[in-house]
């Protein structure tokens, strides 16, 4: 397999993807690209189809079209096979194992990895990246605040050693100061080489840290470009930024 970092091929290339539920179409011919070590924002209002797209990419939902990760077609693979290739999702609502400790949640993220020494090093790295989790490593995940649970969900995904991490509605219900901290973490892991697809209803937050963005409305990509160009676009300002 060629290395998308060196041959110009996008790490993730989605072409003509359509999907829905029970015969009801939700996504219509979606095409997006994410390059290696990029942070790309997928933004749009509630019900636009953002989470449906992530479910299709993770192979939790049937779809038509093409999904290629590092040049490999994913559409015929199972969710477990896709996870094994490094496409990892931080789901909306965190979906932690609430009656397990923080540390056990993180170890669950790396359950497929055989190198115990590397797993131990990454556990230490997570506690350095999220000091609050280090302080609460023996605490039950379900007893933490929303912000701490979001940190735990992100750290659990990172423990899977993702090639591409998809983050769904990270800011939902969190205080702005916590969201700022989480955006700083995303910037750090991007610098470390992890590619990020950030799916957000809060357009301002998503575009503040992204390289590029896509705007999705009623299951269709209606705008795309650099994050700066989208923030400056009058249509985006009027529809999403209250300007």
Protein model, in words:
The structure is a single chain. The chain is 39% helix and 26% strand. The protein starts with a helix and ends with a helix. The protein has helices at residues 4-7, 50-57, 79-84, 102-109, 116-129, 131-135, 146-158, 176-191, 203-209, 227-232, 234-240, and strands at residues 12-21, 24-34, 39-43, 63-69, 72-73, 87-90, 164-168, 195-200, 212-217, 220-226. By secondary structure, it is an alpha/beta fold. The relative contact order is 0.18. The strands form two sheets. A six-stranded mixed β-sheet has the order 6-7-8-3-9-10, with helices on both faces. α4 packs parallel to α7 (146-158). The chain has eleven helices and ten strands. It folds into two domains: 1-86 and 162-243, P-loop containing nucleotide triphosphate hydrolases (Rossmann fold, 3-Layer(aba) Sandwich), CATH 3.40.50.300; 89-160, no CATH class.
Give a quick precis of the structure.
Helices cover 39% and strands 26% of the residues.
Give the overall pLDDT as a whole number: 91
Unreliably modeled segments: 1-6
**Rg to the nearest angstrom?**
17 Å
Report on the biggest sheet.
6 strands, mixed
Shape: globular
Strand proportion: 25-35%
> From the coordinates shown, what is the CATH architecture of the largest domain?
3-Layer(aba) Sandwich
CATH structural class of the largest domain:
Alpha Beta
Q: Approximately how much helix is present in the residues?
A: 25-40%
Q: What do we call the CATH topology of the largest domain?
A: Rossmann fold
Q: Termini separation (Å)?
A: 46 Å
SS field, number of helical segments: 11
